[in-house]
Amino acid sequence: MKTLCLFGLIAASLVLPALAAGEPAVLHDKSVFVEQLLKRMTLQEKIGQLRLISIGGDMPKERLAEELTAGNVGGTFNSVTRHDNRPLQEAALRSRLQIPIFFAYDVVHGHRTIFPIGLGLASSWDMRAVATAGRIAAIEASADGLDMTFAPMVDITRDPRWGRTSEGFGEDPYLVSEIARTMVKAYQGESLGNADSLMASVKHFALYGAVEGGRDYNVVDMSPQRMHQDYLPPYRAAVDAGAGSVMVALNTINGVPASANRWLLRDLLRDDWGFSGVTISDHGAITELLRHGVAADGREAARLAIAAGLDMSMADSLYGEHLAELVGAGEVPMQTIDQAVREVLGAKYDLGLFHDPFRRIGQASDDPHDVNAESRLHRQAAREVARQSLVLLENQNQVLPLDKSARIALVGPLADSHIDMLGSWSAAGVASQTVTLRQAMQQALGTDGQLLHARGANITNDKQMVEYLNFLNWDNPEVVQDPRSAEEMIAEAVAAAERADVIVAAVGESRGMSHESSSRTSLQIPASQQALLRALKETGKPLVLVLMNGRPLNLTWAQGNADAVLETWFSGTEGGHAIADVLFGDFNPSGKSPISFPRSVGQIPTYYNHPRLGRPFTEGKPGNYTSQYFEEPNGPLYPFGYGLSYTEFSLSPPRLSAEVLSRGQRLEVSVTLKNTGERDGATVVQLYIHDEAASLVRSVKELKGFRKVWLKAGEEQQVRFDISEDELKFFDAQLEQVAEAGMFEVQVGLDSRSVQTQRFELR
Ligand code: BGC
Asked: Which reaction does it catalyse (predicted)?
């Protein structure tokens, strides 16, 4: 049997003595090791492990060091270099039991190299691209001494008013689940103990994306069927993929805040799903139980949260203040504390921190001289992933791709805005290291063409909005106003447009407009930019819109007036290059939107997989007494799964291997995809299923498979999908997952709206 003295030289002097003081701890056996350690811990030390502390603000480093040495901290976040983390780990190792801490951070779409925001990654429908983003983020973050990321964020979003739409992967449970699985595996690597692996803390459990009215932190009220069918699958997928941690949401669920929700954290997560990792509260969420009004005081809030199964408190003092007393009074059993501590120690064990507390921090002599050195970035990968994330929504008369010898007027407040390229939650990304569209187009044009640049407008002229967006950054405001009048800026842009062959207008939102606590009542491009666009349109020159934003905007004007529309979300460090690659045809766009684009706010929600109705609207028939709004066409402007290419694709009707699927068997659906255009390119073949009659009302269609296929001009390929009973299952009235016998439709298309159908029977 190996004992502690065999577990390596690096940490031996720091970790061995205290542990070895009692029974010999067996490092190679996780549960024995954790139990032996637990036995040696005082109640105070146990509670210390349940505290996750944010560095900065009311926790300056000096005080933190004292707390660490006193054994009062389990982990920290927001400290992101080896140089900063090393002394903190050393302080933790000076504590009586020398238990290492872990270091966490919001590495959501890249760490130093920033990849496209969640919506962008999802638009790629390419799991290799998603995995690349996740793996590189883990490599970079772990090289900075980090052990855990508060990601992936897999909240299903059907309401683009919600600012955090930008962080997630869209509206569809199947697509988001695929990405959740891919991301967890990419972050965590082959083994969590590897020096370049990060533990994933999947968030926000649960249903945060369904906050009422898209207003952040609002309530969620939802039927169990909808929860299980549509909103819970991505968290489940992340858990099944081995996510070591789960972050608990800030919202209530049917009247019970997630942070105090025993059903959620114990019955569902642990008992049903078998999760055995560590649960972490969101920022200050235990104190928020007071504001939710389910706890009368801090003591009760701490009791409710720990009883519900919330292991670690994030940036919240209540566990530290009340748990000891609650245990003393017999209101919280010691076993409850022990179980939570076990999860925290288990996570550290899995991360290899007991083997080597400096596994990711390394030795000082190996620290990078400059954490932001160019050599630490992964630019090529970022460019390749970003190119896949761009969605071409319009291309009238093939105005795109542009000619590199053209004279181009590049206008708009986002054409040269470094900070906005990053998108929200940009971890350790540095704005000045991003490539803007202006820089990239200039480079691509070289001396052949000509780029005329004018800002044309501020992102917004609404003072209140600017104040809101700069709230946390007064010293270094993110939204910088051009002091010139709107008229002057527009006149300059129009003059440039008049001299040009074509206009490229980079418009949309500042990154802060699609962020936590940035809910909007309007999905319009801000008025200042609309005025610019209308003036540009007047010039009669071809107008290409490059949209940068973190949610689907209202594009009705753009659809009717722009010649081309390219949705680029916030595309990251290499975003400018990626967009220029597409604008000039060096890369054929292949992104498909992972979320529907409503025509107006009034139409929300517009998700494609809605339940069937007794009085549905039928295209081409009068709308009276059907489910629709009478002022606007029914359905979204651009459906889920939509995106154009510079080439054309044709899809044959689906062929089925049989008309009957017997339980336990498989049925093959095949289609022939052909690139009928002149360019090589990729598209996404999407497979939807519809259950024609069931014991509960079923969705009009549900995505159950997709393939991104790259074809040379003129080439064709058979694309095959397998269907089994599993793809036909749903949660019935008893919440059993069942596939009920009867007729099903298979729908195959290149978006969710234009599909071709076949039927089969499940027997
Ligand atoms: C957010 C989380 C984030 C945490 C730590 C919270 O405000 O809701 O998504 O992980 O802060 O930064």
From this structure: Hydrolysis of terminal, non-reducing beta-D-glucosyl residues with release of beta-D-glucose
